[in-house]
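Sample intake sheet
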Amino acid sequence: MAKPRQGWAGLFNISFGFFGIQIGFALQNANMSRVFQSLGSSLDDLPALWIAAPLTGLLVQPVIGHLSDRTWLGRMGRRRPYFLAGAVLAALALVLMPLSGALLMAATLLWMLDASLNVSMEPFRAFVGDMLDKDQHTAGYAVQTAFIGAGAVAGSLFPWLLDHFGVANQVVGGGIPDTVRYSFWAGGIALFLAVLWTVLTTREYSPQELAGYGEQAVQDTSADTAALAARSMVAPLRWVAAGLLLAFFTSERGLEKEVYLLAALLCGYGLVSLAAIALARAGRPASMLTSIVGDFSGMPEIMKRLALVQFFSWSALFIMWINTTPVVAQEFFASPDPASAGYQDGGNWVGVLFSVYNGVAAIAALALLPWLSRRLGKARTHMVCLLAGAAGYASFFLITDPQWLLLSEVGIGIAWASILAMPYAILASSLPQSKLGITMGLFNVFIVVPQLLVATAMGSIMKAWFPGEPIWTMAFAAGTLVIAALAMLRVEVPGEA
């Protein structure tokens, strides 16, 4: 039996919660550099302060994916409990963020916000696969992407709109302006209500119903455990060695201290892998540790190739989120000082720019992506869209009037729509539905790792080669999207020539 087809109302209810989640992400992405600089952070310290966000995602997403695959709480289902818990905590973090009086408090709340958003977000990816038959996966992820775009538009525009209604956009002597404060508070309420809508208007299929549709509710992991036990200890030891070498190189060359975190993560993954292999060889029952490590090390080939694309795609996005505010304020408003009115005007304009690329993404997800994928296939569609984004980043070097940056955001928005939809549509139709939660969680590691790499390495690169010139970060963003587009040439989608 096939799962019942969902009409537009069903697709709306399944993904409307993502509208609220993306309001939270948009407020975070467009305003956290502004918050940090308003509280006294220097431009060079921004990557270090942003580390909390991707590090949290790296730890939270695989764990939540594993747990949500194995949760069943009666009428609440298996994904919806995580939607609701994450929404409550994220709303609380948004309410508290504007009350930060020091950088440490703001960085801690960023960690809490990102962790909570990830708790809600990761199961939403699997939820589409749970609720829809394979022939509706592309439509389901397109609708989800449209809500992501719409939520991001709303979140990004809040400060700009409040400024135009006369709310104070500058604090004498520095600090977080009222436009940002009220935006975070309104965003917290909107996030909670949107997620609550999806929780109350959807009903998940029970394990018995999934069996009737030919899907296992929980995957048998005995074969995965046996495969993990057969793995060599050499590969994990190489990860540990790589981490130690990176730490030594960082010390010898005097690189930014954030690089030590990357070294620690390499060592940590190696040690965790060694522990998982040892447990599997000892004949222990499958655990969260062995399941996550086994699934990660045994990824299907299509997932590995898409992971490379994700790595470079999200490197570009994270470069943009960290650096767009200082780039626009310095290069287009001639105001690098965070305490100046020009800087705050530039920050508001960044919110408008971010709303435009997200609005373009919402439209492209429903109109452009289905049209292109029918003619070019999912893989080529994604490649074309990534190249459009690269052109958008490169155009920052050709434009002098900030108004014309709106054109740059069109290309970035097309890429953003595809990044949010096409890889997930390809994966959801190619992998076992019973492991969709952990699959999406592990796939999202390749969203998080490049963010950590950017946060740890970009500061050192810019300080060494382009001190005080943040505009060059856009060249790096354009280059990494071109690499991502070329990597799509290696992705072969089943059923596509």
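Comment: The chain has a mean pLDDT of 83. Residues 8-204+215-219+295-490 form a domain with the Growth Hormone; Chain: A; fold (CATH 1.20.1250.20).
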